[in-house]
């Protein structure tokens, strides 16, 4: 059986003075090497869940917290944030707010230095991280002068320098143009395929989800509405409508066809699957005429 690297057991959280719980009785597990996407409408609890998975809740965010989150075998309540940071890294949606220094290399080493990792190890890790995010050669550049995509890749490199087994990315491409978005997804794909890293990403980019994600967790009003493959999630109109999910274009066409009573050989989520399924349908139709 695949190794469970992250376990969330009956976890609930309410912000101080908030009238209601932002997360309610959350249960799920993530396997090592899995790419899990978190989707859900505004206010569904996605960022709060990222904070809970990374240990920010309960260590840096006050509130009422019940349940257990176990990260690489460590219960987040029983271990300090620096201990947890060596297993799980988090990158937020706004790269600007994550810049602390004036040179890319210092920036990438910053978090690891705060964990008191030996200097030569930080240097090795930082060099590796900059290679992975394709920013080698930018060590002495001013991070504030980089493009949005480059800043976000530097933020990912900073998290990678701490050599986490799990990387959480909270809407890493929400402020990026299409090229910046592709660059970030390419890095994520390499981390998964080459380094077997476990990735948890909040994103609405359905075409990329269809391409890369193993499973999708859908949050709705602080609860887990569904957790399944992109194909089963995007095919389920009830879930899609309830959580206002963005759906890949080929899946939208497929749903319309199925609803009109036209059966398909398979349900497409990726463009190339759509081409295959719809050409087969056209050929069948032509053969009948
Ligand atoms: N610091 C806070 N204090 C009080 N309530 C909060 C705080 N942060 C978030 N909330 C509330 O918790 C709920 C979940 O918010 P959260 O930011 O986790 O949702 P989200 O799915 O990430 O939304 P978005 O897509 O808009 O970023 C919302 O009702 C929000 O208003």
TrEMBL record:
Topology relative to the membrane: Peripheral membrane protein
Looking up InterPro entries in the UniProt record yields: AAA+_ATPase, ABC_transporter-like_ATP-bd, ABC_transporter-like_CS, ABC_transpr_CbiO/EcfA_su, ECF_ABC_transporter_ATP-bd, P-loop_NTPase
Record Gene3D superfamilies: P-loop containing nucleotide triphosphate hydrolases
Q: Could you name the domain of life of the organism this protein comes from?
A: Bacteria
Supply the SMART domains for this chain. AAA (SM00382)
Q: Which UniProt keywords apply?
A: ATP-binding, Cell membrane, Membrane, Nucleotide-binding, Translocase, Transport
Keyword Cell membrane on entry = yes
Where is the ABC transporter domain positioned along the sequence?
6-246
Please give the Gene Ontology molecular function terms for this protein: ATP binding
**Localisation per UniProt entry:** Cell membrane
Tell me which stretches of the chain form a coiled coil: none
| Keyword set includes Membrane | yes
Family, as annotated: Belongs to the ABC transporter superfamily.
Q: What is this protein called?
A: ATP-binding cassette domain-containing protein
């Amino acid at each position: 059986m695949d190794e469970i690297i992250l376990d969330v057991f009956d976890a609930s959280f309410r912000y101080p003075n908030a009238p209601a719980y932002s997360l309610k009785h959350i249960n799920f597990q993530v396997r090592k090497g899995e790419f899990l996407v978190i989707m859900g409408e505004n206010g569904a609890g996605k960022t709060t869940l990222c904070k809970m998975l990374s240990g920010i809740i309960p260590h840096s965010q006050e509130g009422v917290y019940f349940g257990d989150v176990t990260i690489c075998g460590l219960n987040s309540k029983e271990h300090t944030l620096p201990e947890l940071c060596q297993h799980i890294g988090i990158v937020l949606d706004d790269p600007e707010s994550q810049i602390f220094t004036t040179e890319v290399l210092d920036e990438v080493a910053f978090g690891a230095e705060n964990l008191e990792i030996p200097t030569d190890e930080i240097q090795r890790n930082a060099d590796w991280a900059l290679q992975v995010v394709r920013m080698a050669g930018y060590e002495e550049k001013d991070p504030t002068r980089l493009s949005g995509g480059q800043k976000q890749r530097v933020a990912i490199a900073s998290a990678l320098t701490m050599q986490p087994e799990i990387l959480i990315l909270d809407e890493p491409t929400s402020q990026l143009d299409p090229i910046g978005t592709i660059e970030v997804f390419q890095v994520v794909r390499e981390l998964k395929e080459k380094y077997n890293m476990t990735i948890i990403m909040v994103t609405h980019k359905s075409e990329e989800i269809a391409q890369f994600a193993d499973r999708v967790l859908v949050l709705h009003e602080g609860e887990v509405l569904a957790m399944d493959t992109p194909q089963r999630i995007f095919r389920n109109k009830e879930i899609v409508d309830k959580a206002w999910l963005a759906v890949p274009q080929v899946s939208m066409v497929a749903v319309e066809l199925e609803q009109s009573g036209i059966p398909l050989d398979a349900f497409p989520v990726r463009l190339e699957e759509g081409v295959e399924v719809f050409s087969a349908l056209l050929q069948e139709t032509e053969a009948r005429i």
